[in-house]
Amino acid sequence: MDIHNEVPMRAQKLDTQVRQEQIAEAALGVVACRGMKGLSVARVARRIGVVPSAIYRHYGSKDEVLDAVLDLIRDRLLANVAAVCNESGEALDRLRGLLVRHVRLLRENEGIPRIVFSQELHNGDSGRKARMCGTIREYLGQVAKIVREGQQNGEIRSDFPAEVVAMMFLGVIQPAALLWDLSDGDFDVARHAERAWEILEEAVRPIEGAGRAGSAKQKENVMKATDIMREEHRVIQRVLQCLTAATDRAEKDGTLDGDSIRKMIAFLGEFADRCHHGKEEARFFPVARRRGVTCLPGNIDILLAEHEQGRAHLRAMDENLSAAEKDDAEAKTRFCREARQYVRLLTEHIGKEDNCLFPAADRALTAADQEALVRAFEQMEREEMGEGAHERLHALADELCSRWQVTVPAESGHSGCCRHE
Fold it and tell me: For residue 358, which of 98, 237, 289, 373 sits 20 to 30 Å off, Cα-Cα?
C-alpha cells in the first residue's frame, strides 16, 4: 500500500448531500493511505480537489468529518443487508451473499478496518465509541433477523440462538479484517472468508432427517455427557457470581470476607478445575479430538490453555488473600485484579464451550460415545474425587450462594458433577 498515493478527485459543483458523502468518502480514503493520525481537513480537500474552506461549508471541524465517515460506514453496512434481503433464495444463500458483499466493502474501502480497530478513534470520544458499537449491534441484529427467518423455514438449525449465529457470522470476517489491515493487505481475507463460511454453513444447517419432531424427540433423550458439563457450568457460574459480589464489596468499602472467599477458592479449585476441567482433559477432549470436533474461537488447544490460566489466577488469589485481609493495600489490589480476571476468563470460557464446542460435539459424537463418557465421568468421580464429594461440593455452593444472595438458575435441572440417583 503506497501511503502517498492520494489521487485527487476532480472538483465539481454538487448539491449538499452528494458533496457531504463525497467528503466522507475522501476522508475514508485518507485514512486508508495515512491512518487515523494522518486525517486532516486539508488532506480531505486536496483529495477532492477543492480548497479547505469548501469542506468547512459542510462540516465545522475534522471531528464532524469523522462523524460523517461513521455514518457512511453504517449506511453501507445496512445497505448490504437490505440488498440481500431483497434477493430470493434460502436464508443461508442470503447470508453467504452478505458475506461476499461485506468482504468486497472492506477490500474497496481499506480505511474501514483502520477506523473500526483504531484506538485513536475510541479513546478520544466515548460518544463516538458508543456510535460504532451501536452500528455493529444494529448490523448483528439484522443478521440475526435473517437467521430467525431461516430457522422458521427449517433452513437453519433452530436449537442455535439466532444472536449467537449472527455473532459467529461476524466472527468469520472481523479477525480476518484485522489481519488484513495489520499485514497491509497481504492476508487473503476473501479466501479465509470462503473457507470459514463452509464450516459455519455446515454447522448451522439442520441435521438431515431431524425436523421439528426429531428435535422434540432429541430433547426427551437421556442426558448426554455434554448435558452434564453444561449443567456443571451453571453451578460454576453461581459461585463466580459470589466471587464477583465479594470482589465488588472489597473494592467498594475495603471489606474482605476472607473465610467466605477461601471457600470459593476451594470450591473452584476442586469442582471447577479438578472435577469439571479434569473430566474434559482426561475424558471428553480426547474423544472430541478423535471425532474431529473443531470450533473457533473455542478449539481444544485454546481451552486447555485457558484451564492453565485459570489455575494461575486461583493460585494468585490464594497467595494474596491473607495479606489482603490484614489491609495490605497492594495485596488487596492484586487479589481483586486476579479475581476479576479469573471471573472474566471462566465466563468467556464457558460461553465458548456452551455455544460452540458442545453443539459441535453433539453433532459429531455418537450415542455410544456420549454413553461411554457418562460412565467415565461417574467412574472418575468415584475413584478420583471420592465418595461424598458430590454432596459436599454442592452443599458448599449452596452455602456460598445463600451467603451472597445468588439464586439458582431456573433452567438448571441437573446439579450434580455427574448423575447421582
Answer: 98
Residues 302-359: tens digit of each pLDDT: 999 999 999 999 999 999 999 999 989 999 999 999 999 999 999 999 999 999 999 9
| pLDDT one-digit tens code per residue, 139-166 | 888 999 999 988 888 889 888 888 889 8
> Are 73 and 128 contacting, i.e. CB atoms less than 8 angstroms apart?
no
Domains and CATH numbers, the chain: 16-204 (1.10.357.10), 221-403 (1.20.120.520)
In the structure grid, which three cell numbers stand for residue 383, read together?
A: 475413584
Q: What is the DSSP letter of 406?
A: P
Q: Torsions phi, psi of 13, nearest 5? A: -85, 115
Q: How far apart are CA 112 and CA 97, in angstroms?
A: 20
Q: What phi-psi label fits residue 35: left (phi over 0), alpha (psi between -120 and 50 degrees) or beta?
A: left
Q: Specify the residue for cell string 452434564.
A: 228
The answer for residues whose C-beta is within 8 angstroms of residue 306's C-beta and 6 or more apart is: 345, 349
Q: What is the mean pLDDT of residues 243-271?
A: 95
Is 242 within 8 Å of 264 (Cβ atoms)? Answer: yes
Distance separating alpha carbons of residues 267 and 400, to the nearest angstrom:
10
What totals of helices (H) and strands (E) does the chain contain, helices first? Answer: 20, 0
> What is d(CA 179, CA 165) in angstroms, rounded to the nearest whole number?
22
Answer with the residue of higher pLDDT: 387 or 225. Answer: 225
* One-letter amino acid for residue 278 of the chain: G
C-alpha–C-alpha distance, residues 191 and 206, integer Å? 25
Helix axes 189-204, 91-108, angle to 10 degrees: 160
**CA nearest neighbour of 258 among 188, 357, 335:** 335
Comparing 12-21, 36-45, 356-365, 379-388, the range with the smallest average pLDDT is 12-21
Other C-beta atoms within 10 Å of 195: how many?
11
Cβ atoms of 46 and 26 closer than 8 Å: no
Burial of 262 (0-12, 13-18, 19+ CB in 10 A): middle
Closest CA to 392 of 323, 400, 336, 311: 400
Mean pLDDT value of segment 242-270 = 95
CA distance linking residue 332 with residue 317, whole number of Å:
9
- Residue the block writes with cell 460504532: 132
Per-residue pLDDT tens digits for 98-138: 988 888 887 777 777 777 777 666 555 667 778 888 888 88
